[in-house]
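Because discrete structure vocabularies remain unfamiliar, we reproduce here a specimen of the format, pairing a chain with its fold in token form:
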Amino acid sequence: MPSSSAFKRLIIVWPLLLGIGILTTSNGLQGTLLSLRAQSEDFPIEITGIIMAMYYAGFLIGCRYIPDMIASVGHIRVFAALASIASTTVLIHGLFVNPWLWIPTRMLTGFCFSGLFIIAESWLNKIANKSQRGAIFSAYVSIVYGGLFTGQFLINLAPLNSINLFILVSIMISFAIAPITLTNKKTPGYAKPQSIAFKEMINISPLAMTGVFIAGICNATMLTLGPIYAKNIEMPTSEITIFMGIYILGNTVFPAVLGPLSDRIDRRMIIKLTAIIGIICSLMTVADSYHYPLIFILGGMITSIYSVSITHMNDQIKKEQIVSASRSLILFNSLGSMSGPVIAGFLLSYLGSQSFFTMISLYLGLLLIVAFYRTIVGEKIEHKRSFVHIPTLSAPSIMKLKTKNIQKSHKSNKKQ
């Protein structure tokens, strides 16, 4: 039976999935920990925004250069080296509480994590066969978001001003090496990744490019400075973990509903709908900061915009271009993610906490304008591919796992 076969395949890849789960849990804890520790140490908020943005800068650099490192010395060596460095950078944050040291250290962390995800995802691609890719990809998505969700609540295990939580993150990263490097499967072969120029992608679908960029700004703003916003409105740490956990839970739930819906109706309509709902939730949150259902819905809308935008681009290109196009989209999303925390840091510093969700509503408003414009000038897309829910912290290599599962369709020659 297919279900039994898929279950057996999941059993085979469990060491990889376990390692990925530990990495994402450590990543979720580390992001919130750094934000709250910076706030407790009275770092200027604008400097904290720059520190948090450096993760995405490092991630972007890693996506560019780590494949060359893998080609030179192999997956195992690169993975072990990056995990060791990532584990060390966490301890540097805890030992030396200095904003100017944290900036390059956080960039190095992002560089390392991009490589860790690239290698782990490459292994999944190697192990997964065609018929079981869907089940493995679904497990991967669940584990990534489950790890981020769990990591938020680990912040309650020790005082923020001690080094204990930094040590815990370091231990988790080190422990993640074991299940991945000790897998009994051969390391995957190396194929230099390709990407399509941003200019060409914008010509194909300006809406998709705008969607992934705005989603990057909004999501990174929430994940990095959301804890500081919550602290500034006097939430206790225990409630901040709930605040962030609910946002991440929304990331997981809503794309599972809106994605299949976008397969049946015009994806531009879904992007407009998610933007409108996101704007409403953002503005209502300005008036009621403790309204958790609004945060839950907002998280779902932002992540749905990201995945629907990627799938919207896939509808308009050849199947063999999907991996390279998705790589460009994920990298463009990273550029947005770099911008979000920096802008938010300055706005929070000079305009106060009320500007936080107002700013997110303005970003979504810009996307809504582009979506309405493209609905007017764009032509109907006749052939569509199946929706793909891509976790926002994944490396571009994850698309190789999903591409084989995307239904075949003829290329639509109509530009969106």
